[in-house]
Structures are given as C-alpha cells and as structure tokens.
C-alpha cells in the first residue's frame, strides 16, 4: 500500500505519521519527489484499508499496490533511481547510470586471465570511451573442466587496472564466502545462474556496494524484480537490472535478447536497466547491431565484452570484440545517443 502526502505537509507531521505506521508493526519506505511525498507500507497490510489513512489531514490519497515487488515498483518510487559507481575514490572517475542524460558503457574481457591481458584491455576500452571496466575473476561455467577464473588474484589484477586507468571495476560474485574480497569492487555483478540465490541477495542487501543484477536464463521480468526486492528489502537500494538474453526453443543464437524488457521495466520500475548484447547472442558480429538496438530502446547502459586478442581468450572467445571493432561501435553509439540528447 502507498500513502501520498499533501505537498504542504510539515516535517513534524510526517514524522508523527510515519511513527504511527511503524507502531502497527509495518516497515516504511519514504520517497520524496519534487511535488509529493510517497509513504510505502511494507509488510502485511491485508487488514488495512486505504480509507484508514484518509482522515489524516496530511494525506492526499492512499491505494494498494498490486505488484508483489514493492520497493522496486515505480508506485513506491516515482522518480528514476540514479546509481553512481566508483564515487569518492581518489584517482577514480565515477560513472552515473540511470540519469537519462548519458549512455555509459561497461566493457572489458569475459575473464581476467593475466596481468598483461587485463591492463591492455582496460587501456583499450578507456581509450574508446568506456566508463566502467568489467572482467570475470570468478567464472560460473557449465563444464567443470572449463576455466573457472583466477579468483582473488583476478580481483587484485582488476584493482591494478583501476589504478592504472581510473575506471571503476565490475566483476561477478558467486558465493557469500567471497564477499569479503569485494571491498574494492565498485559494481558487484550477480550472474544469471545466481539471480535467485536468495541468501546471496540478502547479504548483498546488507553490503554497501551497487549491484548489477542479471536476469536468469529462463527468468521472468516479475522474478527479476522480486530478486531485486530481496536486495532492496535488506537495505541496499543501489540496484541496476540487466537483461542478458533468455533461452527459447531456437538455437541460432546463444540466447534471445528481450529488448521489450527495457520499456516495460521503465514503466513498472524506477531501477536502471542495462543491456548485455554479448551474452545475449554469443556471436561477435551481432554485438554492434544489438547494442545499437538497445540504445534506441532506451537502455540506461550497455555491458560489452572486449578482448585484445579474442581468438586466444580463455572463455567466450566467439562473442568478444577486438578493440578496433569496439572503437567503431562506440563512435556509432555516440551518434545514436546524440539523437536523444544523451552522451556516452
């Protein structure tokens, strides 16, 4: 349920109203917009009626929220959420996602392989205009015999690349036990296979880092938003959603990119949405086309895999762009973004 307060409501009256709600055993989420303040009620509101609040002089209206996700709902939070990555760090250039003015690109190799490899990739993507460096230190792989990542050493190399380039870093977390190693990671990625690992999501809710939450291989939009709700309900509202393709009956691409998710998520949720075209298709030559389509659909950011020598990559060689192709794509994306008054 949400309660919309009158614009002229005094701060002391709002505080008193909120205290009264908490005394009923309910949680409260406060969203202050330009013209109104919205109080979101969290918990079992089944015994309450919107009319219960209308007698209060500071209440303009009250209504039930039908969506099972509350904090991720635009009803609870009408204004777009803007997430800043890499803030308040000396030598690091912060990146804003969700402001509607920019189309930042997260780029880098699928896996961190060697120091030489990740430093070269970091310099290449920064030169082309990327705003965040990605690279897998821990790799969830279908086969137990495939490269599983360098682990803690991979994170150390990402930190080295951050110091060299000033780019914030994004890498995937697979287990709660590894969370202590992510203190210097700027954007923690939850992969498709873990998007309903609820214990992990709860712990990320208690952590202070922004989270990039990827949609599951066969996950629905509602399930993605409910997973975001787990993180937000536990205290971390810096959540970014990621569409990375879902499985369908056809196998001509690795996955099927659901671009309709972008306008729909913008309609029902205030959280930013990132498109990952690399995992969506798994085919190098398709990545620029899908990236352009994502920009046109209104994505808040893109995540693209780039490797200085894709044919020698230790994982996902077929979908990673070489720097030369990435530079051409960035030039093209800049033009697409400019059409809508955005910059990279």
From TrEMBL:
State any single GO MF term.
3-deoxy-7-phosphoheptulonate synthase activity
Q: Which InterPro entries match?
A: Aldolase_TIM, Class-I_DAHP_synthase, DAHP1/KDSA, DAHP_snth_FXD, DAHP_syn_2
Q: What is its EC number?
A: 2.5.1.54
Keywords, ordered alphabetically: Transferase
Give the first-level EC class, as a single word: transferase
Superkingdom: Bacteria
Q: Name one GO biological process term.
A: aromatic amino acid family biosynthetic process
Domain DAHP synthase ferredoxin-like, which positions? 1-66
List residues of the DAHP synthetase I/KDSA domain: 94-333
Query: Which SUPFAM superfamilies did the record assign?
Result: Aldolase
For whether the record's keyword set contains Metal-binding, the answer is no
Q: List the NCBIfam families.
A: DAHP_synth_Bsub (TIGR01361), PRK08673.1 (NF006421), PRK12595.1 (NF009239)
Read off the PANTHER family from this record.
CARBOXYSOME FORMATION PROTEIN, PHOSPHO-2-DEHYDRO-3-DEOXYHEPTONATE ALDOLASE
Name of protein: 3-deoxy-7-phosphoheptulonate synthase
Q: Which organism is it from?
A: Treponema peruense
Q: Which gene encodes it?
A: aroF
């Amino acid at each position: 349920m949400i309660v919309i307060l009158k614009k002229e409501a005094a701060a002391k009256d709002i505080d008193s109203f909120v205290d009264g709600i908490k005394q009923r055993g309910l949680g409260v989420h406060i969203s202050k917009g330009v013209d109104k303040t919205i109080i979101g009620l969290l918990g079992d509101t089944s015994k309450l009626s919107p009319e219960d609040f209308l007698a209060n002089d500071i209440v303009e209206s009250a209504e039930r929220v039908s969506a099972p996700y509350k904090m991720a709902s635009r009803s609870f939070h009408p204004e777009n959420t803007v997430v800043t990555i890499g803030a308040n760090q000396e030598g690091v250039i912060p990146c804003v996602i969700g402001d509607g003015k920019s189309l930042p690109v997260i780029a880098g190799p699928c896996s961190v392989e060697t120091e030489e490899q990740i430093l070269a990739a970091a310099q290449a993507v920064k030169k082309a205009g990327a705003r965040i460096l990605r690279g897998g230190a821990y790799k969830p792989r279908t086969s137990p015999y495939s490269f599983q990542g360098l682990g803690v050493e991979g994170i150390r190399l990402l930190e080295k690349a951050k110091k060299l380039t000033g780019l914030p870093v994004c890498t995937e977390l697979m287990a709660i036990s590894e969370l202590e190693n992510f203190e210097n990671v700027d954007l923690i990625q939850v992969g498709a296979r873990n998007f309903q690992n609820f214990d992990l999501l709860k712990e990320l809710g208690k952590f202070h880092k922004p989270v990039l939450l990827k949609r599951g291989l066969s996950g629905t939009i509602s399930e993605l938003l409910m997973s975001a709700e787990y993180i937000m309900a536990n205290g971390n509202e810096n959540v970014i959603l990621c569409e990375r393709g879902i499985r369908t009956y056809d196998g001509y691409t690795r996955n099927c990119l659901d671009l309709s998710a972008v306008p729909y998520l913008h309609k029902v949720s205030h959280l930013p949405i990132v498109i990952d075209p690399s995992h969506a298709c798994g085919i190098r030559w398709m990545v620029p086309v899908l990236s352009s389509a994502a920009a046109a659909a209104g994505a808040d950011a893109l995540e693209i895999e780039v490797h200085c020598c894709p044919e020698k990559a230790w994982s996902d060689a077929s979908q990673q762009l070489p720097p030369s192709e990435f530079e051409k794509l960035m030039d093209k994306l800049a033009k697409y973004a400019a059409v809508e008054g955005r910059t990279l």
